[in-house]
Design a protein that fits this description.
By secondary structure, the chain is an alpha/beta fold. It contains 15 helices and 17 strands. The strands form 4 sheets. The protein has an 8-stranded mixed β-sheet with strand order 4-5-9-10-11-13-14-17. Helix 11 links the parallel strand 13 and strand 14 (about 265-270). The protein is globular, with a radius of gyration of 20 Å. The protein starts with 7 loop residues before the first strand and ends in a 6-residue tail after the last helix. Residues about 40-50 have low confidence and may be disordered. The structure holds iron/sulfur cluster.
Length: about 375
């Protein structure tokens, strides 16, 4: 995976005392730093929309986050939810997948931003965990950014792991398409951190996951994390249907289970490509040659377009069968799917979101 070519770092005044500022200074010594009073009033942020979503990824902003850091995953209407929380330590992503929903979700606020007030983030998480000691939390940081793509510069995850390692009622999930695990390897996660990769065959990575690590590099990084004592996760999501998808996905699974020990896995998830009509419009502008624009999809009640239901069920059933051959008891769940699809794939649907959340965290209560 290539290292990011940032053109500048813009720092909001007051963020200079943050450990993240210190880390950025060290890692990006060759890049110009500018200080502004407020990010919103800086020359770059106001023109971001016009300068294009891709161009925004060349400037890195460091600013205080003024709202809540921790939020319940919004899920998707009518779909089975897995009771997941998201912790936002950054916004937007330096990589550039053609199907990335952030192109629509962050269209009016697309600055690539890292939040400097890590102590506030930890305080807020601590208060929430302490208020609900009887609840087991799964918290992920990969909702509106990639959890590790910026890690060599920000050192953010290295700041967070020592805190999460000491908590009794949480698993922190770091979800990534990068191989940037270096800063994790000397830390002791004490069973509280899952490093999870979004996975696709190399063909899909080359065509639609621009700037991400290759399949081989993701697996090598997963292996290093496993050896360093981390739990692992894989998200086969978004699964793409194309002529020959079966053999590509089967080979990817074989390579995965030949590289890592499936007993180190906390969970696997499956999900098919989801696009809103709005996202498709952006994709047509930014990635007009992407094959993902041509497949047949139907509009679902949550406003997202997916493959026709019988095709989704067939894809999930095949994946479950191939996974079970290598990892007979690993936990598998479906991301943003209806109860009907769950029942057709597994013969059951979780009773409620708490039920599914608890299934993901056995033995750690
Ligand atoms: S890695 Fe994730 S967040 Fe980053 S561009 Fe791809 S889909 Fe978007």
């Amino acid at each position: 995976m290539e290292h990011q070519q940032f053109r500048q770092v813009v720092v909001e005044r007051g963020s200079e005392s943050s450990p993240i500022f210190r880390n950025l200074r060290r890692a990006l010594a060759h890049v110009p730093f500018t200080t502004v009073d407020m990010i919103e009033s800086s020359s770059g942020a106001g023109t971001l929309r016009n300068s294009g979503f891709g161009a925004t990824k060349k400037t890195l902003y460091l600013a205080r986050h003024k709202g809540d850091f921790l939020k319940k995953c919004p899920g998707s209407e009518g779909q089975v939810c897995c009771n997941y929380f998201v912790l936002n330590f950054a916004s937007n992503c330096p990589m550039d997948c053609s199907y990335c929903y952030l192109q629509e979700y962050l269209a009016d606020n697309s600055a690539l931003k890292v939040f400097s007030n890590v102590a506030d983030l930890i305080d807020e998480t601590d208060r929430t965990l302490a208020r609900h000691r009887g609840v087991f939390f799964r918290i992920g940081t990969g909702e509106i950014t990639d959890s590790l793509a910026l890690e060599p510069y920000t050192g953010m995850v290295g700041e967070l792991i020592p805190y999460f390692a000491e908590q009794a009622n949480v698993l922190l999930e770091l979800k990534t398409k990068s191989d940037r695990v270096e800063s994790l390897l000397d830390l002791n996660p004490k069973g509280r951190v899952v490093v999870a990769w979004s996975m696709n065959p190399q063909r899909v990575i080359e065509l639609d996951e621009h700037g991400t690590a290759s399949l081989g590099a993701r697996l090598a990084a997963a292996r290093r994390c496993q050896e360093a004592g981390y739990r692992l996760g894989f998200h086969f999501d978004p699964m793409i249907e194309y002529p020959g998808w079966e053999s590509d996905y089967q080979s990817m699974l074989e390579e995965t289970f030949a590289t890592i020990d499936w007993r180190a896995l906390s969970w696997l998830s499956l999900g098919v490509l989801r696009q809103t009509p709005g996202l498709k419009r952006v994709m047509r502008e930014r990635f007009p040659r992407s094959e993902l624009l041509t497949g047949e999809q139907v509009l679902c009640p949550d406003g997202k377009m997916r493959y026709f239901q019988p095709l989704r069920v067939e894809m999930y059933r095949k994946m479950v069968r191939w996974i079970r051959r290598a990892a007979p008891t690993v936990k598998i769940y479906l991301c943003m799917e209806s109860r009907e699809v769950w029942e057709q794939v597994f013969g059951f649907a979780p009773a409620c979101e708490k039920d599914l959340g608890n299934q993901m965290a056995p033995g750690v209560h």
